[in-house]
Write the structure tokens for this entry.
Amino acid sequence: MDGGQPPRAGIVDLVTQLVDDVSGLLRKEAQLIRTEVAEKVRSAGRAVTDIAAGGLLLIAALLILLQALVLALSKVMDPIWAALLVGLGVAGVGYLLVRSGMRAISPRNLSPDRSTRQLGKTAGLMTSGLRKDAQP
């Protein structure tokens, strides 16, 4: 029955080959993931640079517009008072924005209230269930 055919690979050899193939596949997949993540990080870095440059240009535009407002107001009032009025208005808006942001990131607002409540409910259910099981 042998008829000159090469001996069949044993089950151990097949399993070993399968493990080698799977581990090679996993290594290649991991390398692919690392490469893709590195590309995404580089892309995000370029995007952050674009955002920063855009932000700087927007700040410059805001300063120019505020100066134009001062110049327009100086047509109806003394330029010193126009600059003071615009400066105080911008400072007031800035103060309100900072105050609102500080309130939003206070530790009290950042605590996971819903999760804490849910954990308390779960613990209460578990302890009440244990009490019922412990009663004769």
User: Anything to note?
Assistant: The two ends are 72 Å apart (CA to CA). The chain has a mean pLDDT of 85. The helical segments are 11-73, 79-104, 107-110, 113-134.
